[in-house]
TrEMBL record:
<dbReference type="InterPro" id="IPR011705">
    <property type="entry name" value="BACK"/>
</dbReference>
<dbReference type="InterPro" id="IPR051568">
    <property type="entry name" value="LZTR1/Attractin"/>
</dbReference>
<dbReference type="InterPro" id="IPR000210">
    <property type="entry name" value="BTB/POZ_dom"/>
</dbReference>
<dbReference type="Pfam" id="PF00651">
    <property type="entry name" value="BTB"/>
</dbReference>
<dbReference type="Pfam" id="PF07707">
    <property type="entry name" value="BACK"/>
</dbReference>
<dbReference type="Pfam" id="PF24681">
    <property type="entry name" value="Kelch_KLHDC2_KLHL20_DRC7"/>
</dbReference>
<feature type="domain" description="BTB">
    <location>
        <begin position="345"/>
        <end position="411"/>
    </location>
</feature>
<keyword id="KW-0880">Kelch repeat</keyword>
<dbReference type="InterPro" id="IPR011333">
    <property type="entry name" value="SKP1/BTB/POZ_sf"/>
</dbReference>
<protein>
    <recommendedName>
        <fullName>BTB domain-containing protein</fullName>
    </recommendedName>
</protein>
<dbReference type="GO" id="GO:0005794">
    <property type="term" value="C:Golgi apparatus"/>
</dbReference>
<dbReference type="InterPro" id="IPR006652">
    <property type="entry name" value="Kelch_1"/>
</dbReference>
<keyword id="KW-0677">Repeat</keyword>
<dbReference type="InterPro" id="IPR015915">
    <property type="entry name" value="Kelch-typ_b-propeller"/>
</dbReference>
């Protein structure tokens, strides 16, 4: 059964910086923590973890393309149930290393081939030895190798190992004997994230307390350095998740002794930490020992532990709206280029003695022109029509609106354009002009606006200008526009006096 979303979440589906619940078309994995999750091509793969009763070795795939969970039934020799292991992706395969099986820490190593749907155990060759049996370590892939850092093997570790996929061999990159002052201290439940040619390590637990130190390993120079930052970093924590997107690192949740749901961004260009506040949706509840991945322009988290209950909710945070290969529409620009364009023109208007070229098909958006060209009016068969009592610029603006549904209504032309829109029966443009004029009513023009709105049937504008005149009558009645209105329509003056 698909999980239903609140209508508000549906409306946020493609908005940036918002949390939404991922709508799945099938049953998700059961509640769990201490599992792993990796993205391979267009799918999220989740392996193992602890469901509150036992360790598991079930294996699930979530297809981002069709929003469907599938439990993978595969062939070969697959990993035993475990938690606190590491999973990485290389090529078309998912790799699982180490962890805790409920009885022992392990350092076995498995490969799942997504093309053949087959597991196999990897037995390394060469002289190098794999890391000691451990759990709560971290792992990344960089340029053909998997790197394992830190963890717990009976002691808290900060050793660093490399597995070369091509040679099927291990070697130690550096250990504590080669440490310098910038070497991260021993820890477990830290995060390691590859950004560019660096592996970034944040936080963890050293056996005595949570940490929030921040280190970078340079694959190019093979050196550690501590990262100095501005802003306020996340509080010390372990069992959090860290992902990278564009020029930032993102940290969500974890344990500070209590489950957390805070969310931070580290901006590399500014070397600054910033807390993230979503612009909508319902954020995930506090949790640790969850998984977090990036796919496309979204950050996804699944499961974890809130301090009392294992979880299997699936949340998405959108960094950006999805772009599309479909180009943006250019219809408005193309139609705008046809205004007063002789190409394909089938009617010419003479305005103030000058020609304006037009196209009957587009002019028919106006009831005035529609009646002119489709009825028995003499102009219907004419190739050239003269229109008086309208200025050349105003008629061009009318055409531009009919072609594009857009008009730049500045205050200087608003009244003239309003009268033209009324003449040509363009109601929406009348309303646009009416709103623009309404915001400009003052002592000097109130009477003119009242008279014009009465003449052209603009009820809202008429009411607004009448109310303004009544409230400011002692000043308005002394203006030239009021005297002109009184000479032209004494009934309007009587209406004003009756309202006082």
């Amino acid at each position: 059964m698909a999980e239903l979303k609140h209508p508000e979440e549906e409306s946020l589906e493609n908005k940036p910086w918002c949390w939404t619940t991922v709508l799945a078309q099938s049953k998700p994995p059961c509640q769990r923590s201490l599992h792993t999750g990796v993205v391979l091509e267009n799918s999220l793969y989740i392996f193992g973890g602890y469901d509150g009763v036992q360790r598991t070795n079930d294996f699930y795939r979530f297809s981002f393309a069709n929003s469907r969970w599938t439990q993978i039934v595969s062939n070969g020799v697959f990993p035993t149930p475990r938690d606190r292991h590491v999973s990485v992706v290389f090529g078309t395969c998912v790799y699982v290393y180490g962890g805790y099986d409920g009885y022992n820490r392990v350092n076995d190593f498995y490969e799942y081939n997504a093309e053949t749907n087959t597991w196999r155990e990897i037995i390394s060759s060469g002289n190098g030895s794999p890391p000691s049996a451990r759990h709560s370590h971290s792992g990344v892939v960089y340029e053909g190798s998997m790197y394992i850092f830190a963890g717990y093997d009976g002691l808290y570790r900060n050793d660093f190992h490399r597995y070369n996929f091509e040679t099927n061999s291990w070697r130690i990159v550096t250990d504590s004997l080669g440490a310098n002052e910038h070497w991260p201290k021993p820890r477990y439940r830290t995060t390691a994230t590859v950004v560019g040619d660096k592996m970034l390590v944040f936080g963890g637990h050293d056996g005595a307390r949570q940490l929030n130190d921040f280190y970078a390993w340079s694959f190019t120079n093979e050196t550690w350095s501590e990262i100095e930052t501005l802003g306020f970093p996340p509080s010390p924590r372990d069992s959090h998740v860290a992902v990278s997107f564009k020029n930032s690192l993102f940290i969500f949740g974890g344990s500070t002794g209590n489950a957390r749901s805070d969310f931070f961004e580290y901006k590399f260009d500014e070397q600054r930490w910033l807390p993230i506040c979503s612009t909508g949706g319902t954020p995930p509840c506090s949790r640790f020992c969850h998984i977090g991945v990036v796919y496309g322009k979204c950050f996804f988290i699944f499961g974890g532990y809130d301090g009392s209950t294992r979880l299997n909710d699936f949340k998405q945070f959108r960094f950006e709206t999805e772009s599309s290969d479909v180009p943006e529409s250019t219809l408005t620009q193309e139609l705008s280029c046809l205004v007063n364009n002789q190409q394909f023109s089938d009617i010419t208007f003479i305005i103030e003695g000058k020609p304006i070229y037009a196209h009957k098909l587009l002019l028919c958006r106006s009831n005035y022109f529609s009646a002119m060209f489709s009825g028995n009016m003499i102009e219907g068969n004419s190739k050239e029509i003269t229109i008086n009592n309208i200025s050349y610029p105003i008629f061009l603006t009318i055409l531009r609106y009919l072609y594009t549904d857009q008009a730049d209504v500045n205050l200087e032309i608003a009244m003239d354009l309003f009268e033209a829109a009324d003449l040509f029966c363009i109601e929406r443009l009348k309303k646009i002009c009416e709103q623009r004029i309404m915001s400009s009513i003052n002592i000097e023009n109130a009477a003119n606006i009242f008279q014009a709105s009465d003449l052209h049937g603009a009820s809202n504008l008429r009411e607004a200008s009448l109310r303004y005149i009544v409230n400011n009558f002692d000043q308005v009645c002394k203006t030239a526009s009021f005297k002109d209105m009184a000479r032209a329509n004494v009934e309007l003056v009587l209406e004003i006096l009756n309202k006082r």
